[in-house]
Design brief:
The chain is mainly alpha-helical. It is built from five helices and no strands. Helix 1 packs antiparallel against helix 5. The longest helix is centred in the N-terminal third of the chain and has 82 residues. The chain is rod-shaped, with a radius of gyration of 40 Å. 1% of the residues are buried. The model has no long low-confidence stretch (mean pLDDT 85).
Length: 173
């Protein structure tokens, strides 16, 4: 009977030891699973963040490419228009039309973005070596630069809208 009691006590002690060991293993596995789930959640959030950044970078690159293409087209058109000046403003028209000093002064002040100073003496006197075709070339070049700058402003506005949208989406996350 004593052996039986000792055997039962040993069996209970062994079972308790095995249970305790198994419980520790389950606890470690649960902890490892929790860490893995946390890492997965963090990786998913980082993936979503990186995907948003990639999409923004791709759209920005596309926008810049479109802008560069648009500016190139504007410059090409401006050059084509400037090449046509001799067709539309002939040497006969140059000889027939004297560009007045007052016009040259006013045009130069407007191009510089300043108010004209003083008055031309006399304003109707022909400007030395300024022809009507030179005025047409200058005007065509100015409008070409204007259209290039307008394209840049439009592209920057689109970029600002895209960045605002992306930041709003990031803030919602």
């Amino acid at each position: 009977m004593l052996y039986r009691a000792l055997a039962i006590a040993a069996l209970i002690a062994a079972t308790t030891g095995l249970f305790s060991c198994q419980q520790a293993r389950v606890s470690r596995a649960t902890t490892a699973l929790d860490r893995a789930n946390l890492a997965l959640t963090n990786a998913s959030a980082e993936k979503k963040d990186l995907a948003g950044k990639l999409a923004l970078a791709q759209s920005t690159t596309r926008l810049v490419t479109e802008y560069v293409d648009r500016v190139q087209i504007v410059r090409e058109r401006g050059e084509a228009i400037t090449k046509e000046v001799p067709v539309y403003v002939t040497p006969t028209a140059d000889a027939a039309c004297a560009v007045p000093v007052g016009f040259v002064q006013l045009h130069d002040a407007a191009a510089a973005g300043i108010a004209p100073t003083g008055t031309a003496d006399p304003p109707d006197a022909p400007a030395a070596s300024i022809t009507l075709s030179a005025v047409a070339e200058t005007t065509a070049a100015n409008y070409s630069q204007y259209h290039a700058a307008a394209g840049q402003v439009t592209a920057l506005q689109l970029l600002a809208i895209q960045l605002h949208t992306a930041l709003t989406e990031c803030a919602r996350r």
